[in-house]
Amino acid sequence: MMKLILVAIAVIIVTIGLVKLIDKFIPTKFKPLLQLALWVAIAFLGYNTFQSVYAPIQFNKLKNKRYAKVIESLNDIRDAQLAHRKITGKFAGNFDNLVKFVDTAQYTITQRRDTSVIDPILTKQFGVDMYEDKVLIDTLGFVPVKDSLFKNSDRYKTMMNVPVGKEDAKFELKAGFLEQNNTKIPVFEALVKKSVILFDQDKDLLSQENQVVSVDGVNGDALKVGSMDEVNTAGNWPKTYGANE
Known about the structure:
The protein is about 50% helix and about 20% strand. It is an alpha+beta fold. It has three domains: about 1-50; about 65-105 and about 150-240, no CATH class; about 110-145, no CATH class. The chain is rod-shaped, with a radius of gyration of 32 Å.
């Protein structure tokens, strides 16, 4: 981009120089038309130089705004999925099941107590009261998952909808298991392509965004949380957009 800007500025300077040469050496009757054409060329090049700088700035401002909204939804999906795993031992593979879970599931509120009780075997063996330590878990009550995660909001019912970008777009959701050390570990992934979020933007700038590799950018061609290839529930966005874990 910088190279393009420098070339455009150089052409503008050359064009201005031509205007001056025309004024000095071209016959008077030809000057108005040639000067008008050159000033039009200067205006055109100036506009394109301005756009080459301004367009990426506007693209980035809109991109950051849309990414922030998408990340809010991905965080809701992750929170719901983590609750699903905590209660059921696995992640939900589709949004219908995930929404139904949030609507109906409850956290169990427990309290741990350390206590000592008589060990009948040792007591009989030694003829005196012998005690063993035990941990007792008392159930204190239940709290609905939807109240714990979403308070008075029902936004979880629409968390499958991508909030910005292409109309009626949905997040992709997958879930399954990875085997590590002969143990099956639940995993999930929710994502949306950048081309969906920025569908109405300049295609060249979108192509550049899809190829981003940077510590302060969203690498790859999608915004996502979780992974089907590794045990990971983090998001792929930098912390400048908010917490990603």
